[in-house]
Amino acid sequence: MAFWVFGYGSLMWEPGFRPVERQRARLEGWHRCFCMRSIHHRGTVEAPGLVLALDRQEGAVCDGVALAVAAEEAQEVLAMLRERELVSSAYLETSQPVTLEDGRRVEALTYVIDPDHVQYCANLPLEDQALIIAVAAGGRGPNSDYLHNTVGHLEALGFEDADLMWLAARVRGLTPVS
């Protein structure tokens, strides 16, 4: 194994590579939230969507998934992750200590928000987030799909995120049935 990757949003359900090991994991000191305007994947420059990012917060914890990358795939996976995650430089590529479900502590490649970046939008009220997510769409599809996939995978893993669950219910109520 070459390295670990911590997934807290779409990397949990669509990592883009086949991990050699996958475990539930916890990252301390960071909060998962919709604090990044998406102008590529889930929105456009004209109508930005929102995507999840990790925002530093004292006492916070973020539950997610740690994915181990095979040594022989390390360079290819790292290049793919950088192309995907660093598309607008709003994320910072960091190494963070995470605790795996089996008790091991490992360093994991973790993408966190750059609080100085123009796409950073901390502390948007949940209602405002829902109104954006309900209508935004970008290169990877509707913003609402991103939200619902993330919530579904968190629930399947046994994780609860009250804000995301509220958002999912609210966005369902705002989205017309086709």
From TrEMBL:
GO terms for biological process: glutathione catabolic process. This is glutathione-specific gamma-glutamylcyclotransferase. The lineage of its organism: Bacteria, Pseudomonadati, Pseudomonadota, Alphaproteobacteria, Rhodobacterales. Pfam families: ChaC. GO terms for cellular component: cytoplasm. It comes from the Bacteria. Keywords: Lyase, Transferase. The keyword Lyase applies. PANTHER family: CATION TRANSPORT PROTEIN CHAC-RELATED, GLUTATHIONE-SPECIFIC GAMMA-GLUTAMYLCYCLOTRANSFERASE 2. Its EC number is 4.3.2.7. The keyword Lyase applies. GO terms for molecular function: glutathione specific gamma-glutamylcyclotransferase activity; transferase activity.
